[in-house]
Amino acid sequence: MHKQAGLAFALCYPSPYKVGMSSLGFQTVYRLLNGMPDVSAERAFLPDDVRAARASGDPLRTYESARPVGDFAVVAFSLAYELELAGLAECLDMIGLPLFADERAAAPRPAPLIVIGGPLTFSNPVPAAPYADVILMGEAEKTLPELVAAIRAQPDLDALLAHLAAQPGFYVPSLHGTRLPAIAAAPDDDLPAYSQIRTPNTELADMFLIEPERGCHRGCTYCVMRRSTNGGMRLVAPAKVKALIPDDARRVGLVGAAVTDHPGLPEILRAIVDADREVGISSLRADRLNDEIVGLLKRGGYRTLTTAADGASERMRDVIQRKTKERHLLRAAELARTHGMTSLKLYMMLGLPGETDADIDELARFALELARVAPRVVLGIAPFVAKRNTPLDRAPFEAIDSLDDKLARLRAAVRGRVVLRPTSPKWAWVEYRLAQGGFEAAPGARAGGSRTGRRRWLTCRSRSPRCRYPKLPTPPFRRRRWRSPRSPPGRPSAGRRPERSPARAAATGSGARRSR
Ligand code: SF4
After folding, report:
1. Does domain 188-418 have CATH number 3.80.30.20?
2. Which of 214, 217, 220 maximizes ligand 1 atoms within 8 Å of its Cβ, making it the mutation to test the pocket?
3. 433: burial class by Cβ within 10 Å (0-12, 13-18, 19+)?
4. Which protein residue has the closest C-alpha to ligand 1 atom 3?
5. Model confidence, pTM
6. What atom in ligand 1 is closest to the CA of residue 322?
7. Which CATH number fits domain 7-186: 3.40.50.280, 2.60.40.1190, 3.40.50.150, 3.40.30.10?
8. What is d(CA 295, CA 190) in angstroms, rounded to the nearest whole number?
């Protein structure tokens, strides 16, 4: 899209193109801005190969006109989750701007207005705050038109920021500090969000994305999108969803926190697959799956039935108010088999407060039961990361070696019969620090988007004021007690390598040798 306009936004996604173009929020902001009179938006993304892009010495440029991003009046970033802060810092650096707002204010050259928005603002945008002039909290359909009107009315930056700081939904870190304003909600008439551009070069190739509902009416205690956020679930009429799907869209993605809770879902799905289109749904609730819905998904090209259990056991699911029961998951496994799916994939969390080895054993037992029903069972396992704006805010992160032990215990119990796809506990801990952090966590993103950068940040113990990494506590490894052969009974000695846990030893088959 090329447009000449008086007010030009560069819209940056702090991950590579294929990730950014799969973001319905990013696409929606692009469409909204270009739909406003005398406003244009061009896209820029974190390069696929950051090192090569840096070595070229070329600044970050937009896709539409190849103009340097730093030449735009406004540079807006969409942040989906905590670890994208590293990409944000990388992009600002490649634009040629000082990273932090106070550094830009002191620079001799005027800088663009740096705006941040996106899903991260529903929980904790404070670690992103030092990078931003202004942060749009919540739903952009509400705040974007107000931002554009304010920029037009207030050419002076200080006056603009003072004006925005007084409006609901605008977080101006230089004026608000860490005090967050309320999250903005779009009027229901502005729904649904839908994609502007379909491209083969994304995670969701050539898929038209549309949002038949927004929010959720359920109350899982770890979830930012639970019913207390922006009034819970808002539905879009099936007729409106169907009318917005372009005639030439061969693949349609239905996006939302609780799409399977939409009472009109079968009608929408039927219209899509009857038109010979493929379909995808961002989240399937196991207790909403039935023969009709899974049959329609199969006709729409599904090969893997993916849902979430989140808690390792029935007890843990009750604790976190996740209403999914074993019978729902067993039914999902039966439906996957009946409809000829190749796999059942379940998302789980480990390390919830109060979880014990008995919960892990129950998960192993139940996963094996599922594997006797579904053709193939895959568990996607992520460590629990407490988020702000949820009842489990401030819950601690489980010790990394304890999480490793639980994974090893599970792996040993289901080996060869269930596939495990775990997320690294160390990177989850970085996410936790950012999810729970304040301004002091911001420089962590400066460590860069690379694994090396994050590792340096994770392990940095420097207390030097010149250190470019933040002063974080060391990762939460469990303090183990180790009895030296020379210690008197009952007295642990310090400084020895800790003994490997029985679970980990069992997983590697070497425990007996070591304990002899
Ligand atoms: S985890 Fe899913 S079902 Fe639970 S509150 Fe969040 S969006 Fe709703």
Report:
1. yes
2. 220
3. buried
4. 218
5. 0.87
6. 4
7. 3.40.50.280
8. 32
